[in-house]
Every structure is written in structure tokens, then in C-alpha cells.
Amino acid sequence: MRKIRFSRTDWTTLKPSPRRPPALPLQLDLGPSPGGYGPGGHASLHGRVREALRDAILSGRLPPGERLPSSRTLAEDLDCARGTILLAIEHLVAEGYLTTRPGSGTRVADTLPDDLLVPRGVAGRTAPSPGAPVLSRRGASLAASRGEAGDAPIPDAFALGRPALDAFPRETWARLLQAEWRAGPPAHPHPLGDPRLRRALAAYLSAGRGVACSEEAVIVTASIRQSLRLLAELLLEPGEAAYLEEPGFPGLAHALSAAGLRTVPVPCGAPGFSIAQAQSLDPGARLAVVTPAQGHPLGATMSLENRLALLAWAEARDGWIVEDDYDGEYRYAGRPLAPLHALDRAGRVLYVGSVSKVLLPALQMSYLVLPQTLVEPVRRALTGSGGFASILGQGALARFIAEGHFTAHLRRTRRLYGQRQAALVASARDHLGDVLEVPPRDGGMHLVARPVAGAEFDDRRAVGACARAGIATTALSPHFTDAARAEQGLLLGYASVPERAIVPAVRRMAEALRTVR
Questions:
Q1: Least enclosed by CB within 10 Å: which of 22, 58, 72, 489?
Q2: What are φ and ψ of residue 42, in 5° steps?
């Protein structure tokens, strides 16, 4: 039985080795870089590899019974981590495209899932494209929304919310994924998440973030937005009001609106969210979504006075507080601030955090810490909806945390991000001083660049000009729901940009912004 070897060429084409080339190369439309989006909207590398292999199988270039090269060989040929290949293969095995047998390796299945729908050999496996769909009013609104404000273009420089992939311990992660692969994933994934991961997260949160909790109170979810929508649907009736910070992350407002709630933006100053001001706008709300450690996007830290007042409101109003602590670990002046959850004595704070934003975006994994009274309702809701997080990677992440790699990675990246922020501030002062002011911050993973006094500036046009120069920036103004209060500026994510790349990127950015002026 002949084997096919894959080699890597500029991340846009997967080709068989020239030793035994098949009739056609395996094409992948991956965009200009590994950070781009591949077929079917897959941003992760393992998703793109999976789609390439599936396409090769369906087109007949990998016929039924064909044995694939070893995962180590594929990883070497594609110049990626072995764990990436294992994840792609595990997906295809679960979908029925590949089979694995001890001593026989990984082979293409004799009967493919698509054969049950379209007989093999019938031209055109895909169904004809239907006409334009007729959407509901809610569907049209969702389709028209832009999701995250100023959806960042593909280039990596200064993209928002991206961690330092160059600092990620790939070899350690690949070893842990391999260990999980050998053991095999659970036959029936738990709707609340792998118990080992929940146990590891509880231990980390209790010791590292001051969030005292048991493993039963920790729920693994696919994203913070999924967590928020789930909580909104469980705790409030359609049409009820929920407080949001202004400015804030637009994705949170979209999640609440999708759950049928009415959002009340509350302007936030230097002391952070104020429940007194919120009640003056709408006294009927029973839910507040806040980022006490460092508000997004301006970085305001909620004062102790405002924290205590918010907790007292929740207890008296029978209300709930969702604390979004997605990057609370990253403080560069002193120790990270204790979460609001640490002050809660009435069980009114629902704590949410993200693994994807601090570790690896491809994981698509977040978590919830709930009061014990909410665990069972959440379990039932997740079981009924089937909306629980993918089990792939949860076991490896549990080992990663339990063995101390997670806290070590946080310490390492905390130092690294502090250095990268300082480099960006210095470079902006040298090359952008006549256009933008970029002051430092005590924490977070991005900086806020504001136009110099008296300068005319349109942040949406600036984002477009930077994108044409290969620089990903995010406009500040779309983070405000009220256009009259909207401020102009750019959000510059620095966590994913190596220091050596900061100065050239800032120079290109300065040239692009001067053309807009």
C-alpha cells in the first residue's frame, strides 16, 4: 500500500511529496499567513489541516483504505506541532472519515459519511446553492451586526485580544496532547466539562486569583459570550434590563440582546462602574455585567467603594453580577488585583474567565464559577441544548494546569507583555507623536492611542488605512453605543507582537495615518 507524504509550502498549499505525486495537489485557501482563515471559516491550523485532509478524501486523492503518514511525519512536513495533527485526525476519526487500529495506523474509512447521502462516483457532492435566505427580523439584525467592534483584519500586528503565540510552550503542549490521544477521549463528554479540568481550574483560581470555589462550581464553556447568554436566559425574563459598561466590549451586548434582554449602557469614569449612576438610568435592572479589574477597552479599575455598593445592590435587589475577568492576571505594577468575587458573601457574583485569550485562541475555551444553587440548572440547560464546549484539549489543559505549566506561562508572559508594552510606548513616542498619544497602562494586553490635541481624526478611516499597510488596529468609537459620547482613538494589542517587530510596524502605521490626514 503506497503512502502519501505531505510537505509545507507558504501555508497556502498542501502537496504530496514529489517521490510519488498523485494526480492533483491538495489545495488549501489559507490566506496570507497562519493567522488567516481557511475553508469553512476555520482560523485554527488544525481546522485547516482537517479540511485539507477531508477534501483529499472526498475528492478521491486519498482513496478508501489508504494509510496516512504518521502524525510525526505530517507534523515535520507541515512544520507544525504534532498535537495540531493529532487534533485534526481525532476530529476526522470522530466524523467517520478515518479509522485507527493498533498496529495498522490511521487509514481512510472504507465507507465515508458522505456516501450515506451521495453515492460515490456521482458528480457534484455538494447540493446546489439555494436562493437568498429569508431571515427573521432577529436574524437580519444578527447578520447585519459586525460582532466585535472593528473586526480586526488578518494581519497580526496590534490585533486585539491575541496572546503571544511565540511564547507558548508548544513542545510541552504537544506532549500532553499526545498523552491524551493515547488514552483516548471520554466516550461521553460531561456537559459541564472534563472533571479533571474543572478540578485543576478550581485549584488555580483558589490559589492564584483568590476565587474560592470547588470543582463542582466550575463550568467549562466555549466562550464568554456563550456563558453570558446562557446565564441571561436562565436568570432573567425576555425584555428585562441588564447594565453594561460604556464603553465596553460589543460582543457582550450582542449576547444579551440575543437572549432577549434590554441593555442599559452605563458611562464609566476613572472609578469604574457605578451602580448609583446605573440605577439613575434604569432602576429596574437585575443583572450587571462588569470588568472590575480593568475595564474594556479603557482600562478603568473599579474602586472599592463602587465594588461594595454593587455587591450591596445585588443582595438587596435579588440581582446578579457577571464579573468578566478575561485578562485580570496581567498587571505590571504590583500583584494582580483581587476579583470582585473575593468580596462576595451572598453568592451573587458569577465569575467568568477565558483560557483562549491568555493561552491559545484555538482552544476556544472559557469557564464559569457559579454559586452551588445554579450548578444543576446550568447542567440541565447545557444538556438540553447540546451547547457545551468541545472535549478536545480539555484533558491536556487539565494536565497543563495541574503540572504547573499554566502559572509558569502566566509569569513568563506577564514579564514579556510588560516589555512589549514599554517598547510600543517608546516607539509610538518616537514615530507617532505628531498623530497619536499612546500612554502606558498598569495592566491588560492592549493600549489606547488617542489623537493629539486639536487634530482631526476618524478612527474608522484610520483602521482601514492601517489595514492597507498590513497593520491590524481596532477603532475605539464603536465601543460606545451612544454616538454622541463616542471617543476617537485606536486600540493597539501588543501581546502578540515580538519586540523586534514593534518599531517597523509603528513606522508603517505612522506612514499610513499621515496619508489619511
A1: 72
A2: -80, 120
For 265, phi and psi rounded to 5 degrees?
-70, 130
Contact 16, 5 (CB under 8 A): yes
pLDDT of residue 243: 97
Closest to 327 in 3D by CA, of 393, 414, 421, 425? 414
How far, in Å, CA of 203 to CA of 219, rounded?
Answer: 14
Number of Cβ atoms within 10 Å of the Cβ of 44: 19
Distance between CA 479 and CA 471 in Å, rounded?
20
Condensed to tens digits (0 to 9), the pLDDT of residues 172-229 reads: 999 999 988 887 766 677 888 999 999 999 999 998 888 999 999 999 998 888 889 8
Q: Contact 389/365 with Cβ under 8 angstroms? A: yes
What is the H or E stretch that residue 380 is in? helix 372-385
The chain-wide mean pLDDT, for the chain, equals 82
The span from the CA of 457 to the CA of 449, in Å, is: 12
* Cα–Cα dist 87/47, whole Å: 8
Q: What is the pLDDT of residue 222?
A: 86
Question: Cα–Cα distance between 421 and 343 in angstroms, integer?
Answer: 31
Is 125 domain-assigned?
no
C-alpha cell at 4: 502519501
Residue 477: CATH number of its domain: 3.90.1150.10
Q: What is the domain range of residue 463?
A: 408-516
Q: Model confidence over 90-128: pLDDT tens digits? A: 878 877 788 887 767 888 888 776 554 344 444 444 444
CA 443/CA 445 separation, integer angstroms: 7
What pLDDT score does 185 carry? 66
Beta bridge partners of 106: 100
The model's confidence at residue 427, banded by pLDDT at 50, 70 and 90, is very high
Task: Quote the number of domains for the chain.
Answer: 3
Q: Are residues 279 and 376 in the same domain?
A: yes
Would residue 365 count as lying in a domain? yes
User: Over 80: is that where the pLDDT of 144 sits?
Assistant: no
Residue 325 cell numbers, joined:
475577568
Q: Are residues 356 and 416 in the same domain?
A: no
d(CA 455, CA 446): 23
Per-residue burial over 52-80, b if 16 or more Cβ lie within 10 Å, else e, is: bbbbbbbeebbeeebebbebebbbbbbeb
Cell of 73: 511525519
375 and 439 inside one domain: no
Q: What is the rounded distance in angstroms from the CA atom of residue 108 to the CA atom of residue 287?
A: 51
What does the pLDDT average to over 314-340? 87
CA–CA dist 490, 306 (Å, integer): 28
